[in-house]
Design a protein that fits this description.
Blueprint (H helix, E strand, L loop, with lengths): L4 E5 L6 H14 L7 E5 L5 H8 L5 E4 L16 H6 L4 E4 L2 H5 L5 H13 L3 E6 L3 H5 L3 H12 L5 H4 L3 E4 L13 H18 L2 H6 L2 E4 L4 H8 L6 E4 L6 H10 L2
Parallel strand pairs: 1-2, 1-8, 2-3, 3-4, 4-5, 5-6, 6-7, 7-8
The chain binds 1,3-dihydroxyacetonephosphate.
The site of 1,3-dihydroxyacetonephosphate has 14 residues, from strand 8.
Pathway: Carbohydrate degradation; glycolysis; D-glyceraldehyde 3-phosphate from glycerone phosphate: step 1/1; Carbohydrate biosynthesis; gluconeogenesis
Enzyme class: isomerase
Pfam families: TIM
């Protein structure tokens, strides 16, 4: 059985004090939130203070992005060694906001994914279609292209450390959640793509998260779907009760 993973993507929110408070709130309630793996991904500048706030708790630390280079003249970028140095275990890559606002391509995402894997980080690789792509009946094609491009060159051994997140762009921050049927269809497609590229056994072991307006009130039906193995949570990860409520809903 795949262990559920509930990851909070705080995006560009919080300040130092509220980041610490939020991390402590999540850590304090983690023991009663079931046995899902919990991860919080604060803004990079607060990784350090959040790591301290999480010390001794089962909650893991994740980053929201990472450079595909090791070090050097890359102004404004953050390397894998800087992340691992702070105790980061997961890194979100290819989030739709990185793709649509900052122009990241599938090639950028695969470069980062390979670098993260080589550094021992678990990448949470995001894919998802735009509303116009869904309306044009292109969802499966878009997901396949992003899957193939973003995970290009990832070996059979490496893929076992990867988490995939399906985040329909039209559901992110909009309050419009995918229906269970829409979510399961894409998750099952992703599982099939993993089976085709690797093996059925490997595909069965990989966690595929759903992201997009997940809340305590809609999490139970999404997390009960056969191919949904957790959530990547934006807005609702900014309140410990909501974030932990989602984890509890997956019990
Ligand atoms: O983008 C997301 C997580 O990465 C989802 O954001 P919301 O939960 O705010 O819709």
């Amino acid at each position: 059985m795949r262990k559920k993973l509930i990851a909070g993507n705080w995006k560009m929110n919080t300040d130092r004090a509220t980041a610490v408070e939020l991390a402590k709130g999540v850590a304090a309630g983690a023991a009663e939130a079931g046995d899902a793996d919990l991860v919080v991904c604060p803004p990079a500048v607060y990784l350090s203070v959040v790591a301290e706030a999480l010390a001794g708790s089962p909650v893991a630390l994740g980053a929201q992005n990472m450079c595909c280079q090791d070090n050097g003249a890359f102004t404004g970028e953050i390397s894998h060694t800087m992340l691992t140095d702070l105790g980061v275990e997961y890194v979100i890559l290819g989030h739709s906001e990185r793709r649509t606002i900052f122009g990241e391509t599938d090639k950028n995402v695969s470069d980062k994914t390979l670098k993260a894997l080589a550094a021992g980080l678990a990448p949470i690789v995001c894919v998802g279609e735009l509303l116009e792509e869904r309306e044009a009946g292109k969802t499966a094609e878009v997901i396949r292209t992003q899957f193939e491009g973003s995970l290009a060159g990832v070996s059979e051994t490496q893929i076992t450390s990867v988490v995939i997140a399906y985040e329909p762009v039209w559901a992110i921050g909009t309050g419009k959640v995918a229906t269970p049927e829409q979510a399961e269809e894409v998750h099952a497609d992703l599982r099939r793509l993993l089976t085709e590229r690797y093996t059925a056994e490997i595909a069965q072991g990989i966690r595929i998260l759903y992201g997009g307006s997940m809340k305590p009130g809609n999490a139970a039906e999404l997390l009960a779907l056969p191919n949904v193995d957790g959530g990547l949570i934006g807005g609702a990860s900014l309140k410990p009760a909501d974030f932990l409520g989602i984890a509890k809903a997956g019990l």
